[in-house]
């Protein structure tokens, strides 16, 4: 059992707050992703769990032990870093075997354990090579094999795919998902890539400036973002956010009038996703009318944007759509697809 409990976890350096009030229970075998922009505290949180960073406050439990004062090697966690951190003078075999050696695991079992880990990441034919003789993807697989070789209870991964090219990222991502599922380990995975988060996670924690913004399944976070920051961070393109005013159930901004909203009068930030809105066939059906600002061919669709106040607002059109920049378009944005956020705090209303 490797349930992880984080209770009011804090990290401060002098006056600077790196992580604040982090409270979460991560279930045994869960795949949890920490997601957020650069500097939001993801790596610091992970390093505190690994024991590489001292905590300034709060408690970390792994299984039934409080581990705050345990050395990293006594926490039964394995880490995989973005930089692979392989030993250049060792062969792939020796790199994978290394954790067994330092932990004094019975040498008679090394060969079998190394082979099993190498097989899981399809590295058997490379065991005699040194890291310099491998591609980036192969090196990252060595780092994965080294992390799984001693079957830890907890896997910590810090942006393990960020040095790989786009194609290799997709295949290695699938391999990680498969591997952690087969190994039945609790995994915490750090990324700033929302696609990685959405595809890998059982649950996602969205962080900003050291604070948790929302915890939920990928679907929950996508369908019901807790605030405008989460809304703008999840989804590609980001959710459209328009600042305007509500009066008698109608939201208005430049070229925009969306009625049928059950909201109090006053300022509001209104969000909707490009894929939920559509071009209106008749101008009378349109809630937004504005000239085209950009037009991008995506292959399976065409992405159009217009400017509303200071904001760019995108809508997905059929792949056959063709028009010039500057041509007026009408966009249908029914109230039911809209996400309302407080104009000051950004919290969902
Ligand atoms: P990235 O995606 O860029 O790796 P991150 O979300 O992992 O970002 P952290 O590395 O956890 O961010 O850093 C969180 C904040 O703490 C940052 O503002 C960083 O500058 C600060 N920080 C990290 N380490 C230290 C340190 N040793 N002393 C002071 N501040 C630090």
Give descriptors for this structure.
Rossmann fold, OB fold (Dihydrolipoamide Acetyltransferase, E2P), 23% helix, binds adenosine-5'-triphosphate
CATH topology of the largest domain: Rossmann fold
What value does the Rg take, in angstroms? 24 Å
> pLDDT average, as an integer?
91
Residues in β-strands, percent: 25-35%
Rounded to the nearest angstrom, the distance between the terminal CA atoms is: 39 Å
CATH architecture of the largest domain: 3-Layer(aba) Sandwich
Number of helices, where a helix is a run of at least 4 consecutive DSSP H or I residues: 8
Parts with pLDDT < 50 across at least 5 consecutive residues: none
State the major sheet: 6 strands, mixed
User: Which distinct ligands sit in these coordinates?
Assistant: adenosine-5'-triphosphate
Oligomer: single chain
Helix/strand order, N-terminal first: EEEHEEEHHHEHEHEEHHEEEEEEEEEE
Number of strands: 20
Shape: elongated
Strand order of the largest sheet: 6-7-8-3-9-10
Query: Structural class from helices and strands?
Result: alpha+beta
CATH class of the largest domain, named Alpha Beta
* Share of helical residues: 10-25%
CATH homologous superfamily (4th level) name of the largest domain: P-loop containing nucleotide triphosphate hydrolases
Number of discrete domains:
2
Quick recap of the structure?
Keywords: ATP-binding, Cell membrane, Membrane, Nucleotide-binding, Translocase, Transport. With 349 residues, the protein is of the alpha+beta class. It has helices at residues 42-50, 92-102, 110-120, 136-148, 166-183, 194-200, 218-223, 228-233; strands spanning 4-13, 16-26, 31-35, 57-62, 65-66, 77-80, 154-158, 186-191, 203-208, 211-216, 240-247, 250-253, 256-258, 266-272, 278-279, 288-297, 302-308, 311-317, 328-332, 339-342.
